[in-house]
Every structure is written in C-alpha cells, then in structure tokens.
Model the fold of this input.
Amino acid sequence: MKISNNSLVVLLFVAIIASVGGTFVSVSFMDDIITGAATTLGNVTLTIGGTANCDATDDLIAFGTLTQGGTNQTTGDTGARDWITIENTGNVNLDITAETSANLFASYAAPTPNWRIACNVTQGTGSCNTTFHNLQESSNSTMLITAHQFGDSVDEVYINMNVTIAMDEPTGAKHGDILFTCTQS
Amino acid sequence: MKKERKEVSDKVVVVLLIAAVVVSVLGAFVVYEYSHSYGIGEGSQVEDQSTGRVFLNVVEDPQGDFEGEVDDESFK
Done:
C-alpha cells in the first residue's frame, strides 16, 4: 500500500503533538510530587535517601625497614603511630569490615598472624573492636566497628595494624592492600 | 468538476520527520532533567568501599634467632 505525502504529514503532526503532550503530562505529574510554586505559601516535602559512603582519608601505613623476625604495630607507646583513618562521608551509621585485596608477604598469604588488624579508636560512639585479628581474605572479612557515626567531629575511626616478619620472608620492599567495606548499620 | 488535492512535496515530509525526531528527543531530555533534579528514581546506597595500603622494607636479621611465625593465641 502506498501512503501519500499528505497522509505522512498528518501522521507526523500527530507524532509531534503526541510527543509535546506526553512531555507536558510527564512534567505535570512530577510537579504533583513536589509542590513549591505557590505564590503565597510554599509547601515542599521531600525525602533524603540514606547513603553509605566512606573514605580512607589517610590510607597509608609505612612501617619503614624491619628485619626478618622483627615486629611492629601502630599502637602503644612504641612503634609506628601511623594509623589508617576512615571517615564516614555518608549520612547513615556504618558497619566497617576489612579484608586483604593484595597480600603483604610472599611467605604467608592471608589469613596469617603475621599481618593483623584492629580498630584503634573512634571519634564517635560506635563499637570499636580493638582486639587484633588476622586479616582475612574476602570470604571471611573482619568486623572493625559497628554503628560508626556520620556527624561532623564523630565520623573518623582509626585503624591499627600489626606486622611480624617471618624469617623466611624474602628481603625487599613489601606492599599490601586492605579493602574496607562500609555497610549501612 | 472535482478539484484535485495538491500533494505535499517530499522535502516537506523530510523536514517534518526531522522536526518530529527533534521534538521527541527534546521531550525525553526535559523529562530526564526534571526527574533528575527531583531525585526521582534515585535509590539509597547501602554500601561503599575504600582501600588502605601498607608498605615496609624487609632486611636480613643479623642474628637470625627468631622464627618469625607468630602463635595465634599469644596475641589474645
């Protein structure tokens, strides 16, 4: 069947009108959700969604040089006092877990007592697990803190690390990664 | 005598077709902008991740009298 140009023009006008009309209907529908354009009184209702966000604002611990058989940790009166700092940058309380994403040692893969982690202290009232635990692989991560708060001045938590160098660990530079997972409490 | 209807040219049809497409895309953009500014369809995020790093340098122990492997229970 051959459609004449006249028919096509009519159909195109219908398509344009339908498109413009559909846009107005959609925008009008959204305007019904939030009202705020009244000339004398505005009434805005909105819901702010909860967002779990965390950021390692100080993500590096550098232990320096250690001998085979040596040990060091980031807590106590001696040793490297250089914690990892995690800030709750969202608007909900967080449970924070840790796991290895890159092994620190060549001689012992996680989980090993040669590489341990613990919560040091929190600015807020969250439950900080200060007992050192072996860093685990992803299948069994370690809970560091629960209900870590998000408000200003209470949103930072400091993480401790403890390392012991095995005698059979090859000499040289070592680098390990820890993945922190922050979940809404 | 029956008056013959004048046929619209192909050029007019093409122009209208382009106009229809432009209006359609523009409408979709307006709806998207409106919904985006109102946060419609944005769900809450319940999980995030961040990474920490540890660096150290291992040198030989001059005495070599320590086994290195730590007893798991000794830390508790």
About this structure: The domain at 54-184 of chain A is CATH 2.60.40 (Immunoglobulin-like). The first helix of chain A runs from residue 5 to 33. Chain A has a mean pLDDT of 87. Chain A touches chain B through 80 residues (CB under 8 Å).
